[in-house]
Amino acid sequence: MAKKILVATEKPFAKQAVEGIKDIVEKSGNTFALLENYTDKQQLLDAVSDADALIIRSDKVTAEVLEAAKNLKIVVRAGAGYDNVDLDAATKKGVVVMNTPGQNSNAVAELVFGLLVFTVRNFYNGKSGSELKGKKLGILAFGQVGRNVARVAKGFDMDVYAYDAFCPKEAIEAAGVKAVDSQDALFENCDIVSLHIPATAETKQSINYALVNKMKKGGIVINTARKEVINEPELIKLMEERSDLKYITDIAPDANEEFKTKFEGRYFATPKKMGAQTAEANINAGLAAANQIVDFFATGNKKFQVNK
Ligand code: 3PG
Which of 158, 210, 220, 274 has the smallest set of CB atoms within 10 Å of its CB? Predict the structure, then answer.
């Protein structure tokens, strides 16, 4: 029997990605449905009521959403981080949750450098800035995005370091990157630290006063990961005390207005999270999500399941 596959994205995919997903779904004999740009949770609750499968981005799939989705068997987060899905609630309901690892990581990595050049050139205010060449870049977490950041950093002739609590040093060194022993060492040693950690119980608020204060004069922290990993009050306190530090982010903090007012010239947040907002990333992640769902229904393949 045909399954209803719903794409529900508050922040829409590029048009070509939506067309590609629709094509995959319909060619497999299933039914395609679309809810884009929704502004109200109720719209999502209504749309999921008869869906068998769901493709999302950062959209929140809470216990309430899962409860409303009576027929739901699978949710695929078209992207990397799945902290927006209530995994326990999904598991309890027997709903398989997957992500599409690596599919949007180049886009995020490219944005890191777009933001970094913008930052070291003083937000293009016309004053003399500095270059990335020869600077020490610390990559916090060496997953798919971290690896892409390292690859691009080498093109800039940066001195690249990484730390990952779950990735052996040998694997980091094998990628031509200098592995350090701890998160502290990364902050102590590097001019710029780029965050690529997921938001988990361990990492939430972990980027705090003590850690960032280890940075040398002129340190830059760039966050294209999650706002939750920042301890906002502590970072504000530190940036008040140290006028040399900069914080650049693709995910506006809760205290965005306070950061903007207090740290003009050393703080920047994109108006909307846009690391993965490229046609290529949308096509890669969206089509991968559609293919994973079609394959799951056809063969039971659960390769990218994250709620095991
Ligand atoms: C991810 O986890 O894949 C990225 O943060 C991108 O998220 P987005 O799909 O909401 O842009």
Answer: 210
For ligand 1, mutation pick of 104, 270, 272 (most atoms within 8 Å of CB): 104
Nearest residue CA, atom 6 of ligand 1? Answer: 276
Q: Which atom of ligand 1 is nearest to the CA of 224?
A: 5
Q: Is 176 exposed, middle or buried (0-12, 13-18, 19+ CB in 10 A)?
A: exposed
CATH class of 105-269: alpha beta
Q: Which residue's CA is the closest to the ligand 1 atom numbered 11?
A: 276
The tens digit of pLDDT for each residue in 9-46 reads 999 999 999 999 999 999 999 999 999 999 999 999 99
Residues with CB under 6 A from ligand 1: 11, 57-58, 79-81, 104, 273, 275-277
Structural domain 4-103+278-299, CATH architecture = 3-Layer(aba) Sandwich (3.40)
